[in-house]
Design goal:
109 residues, 3 strands, mainly alpha, 4 helices, single chain
Length: 109
């Protein structure tokens, strides 16, 4: 549905199906993600998702993280007790942006 977000100081920007960039205000998106995750620790979820993506890369060669990867992961780990409509595009973009930042930090270390 959306492409990998670009992370700005105040916004996440992602290109949607229309081909136009859409803006997601970081503070609101991050707050929506925290509500969606509840008591689940974001750092642990990011580590698990990174491991899953690494396994996909090893299995299939080069594997770019796509919307379906992020959305599917969130539904598997959180979706059991949540209604599907509570996982909005804003929530998925916020998690994906957190993953992008996580990967940058890992690469820097």
């Amino acid at each position: 549905m959306f492409k990998k977000p670009t992370i700005g100081p105040k916004d996440y920007i992602s290109v949607g199906l229309s081909g136009w960039p859409e803006r997601f205000q970081r503070t609101k998106a991050d707050a929506a993600l925290r509500i969606f995750l509840g008591d689940l620790p974001l750092d642990e979820l990011l580590e698990n998702f990174a491991t899953q993506q690494d396994l996909e890369r090893r299995k299939h060669g080069r594997h770019e993280t796509l919307w379906g990867d992020v959305e599917g992961y969130l539904m598997r780990v959180v979706g059991g007790g949540k209604r599907p409509h509570s996982m909005t595009p804003t929530v998925v973009i916020a998690f994906w942006a957190a993953y992008v930042l996580h990967e940058r930090n890992e690469a820097a270390n």
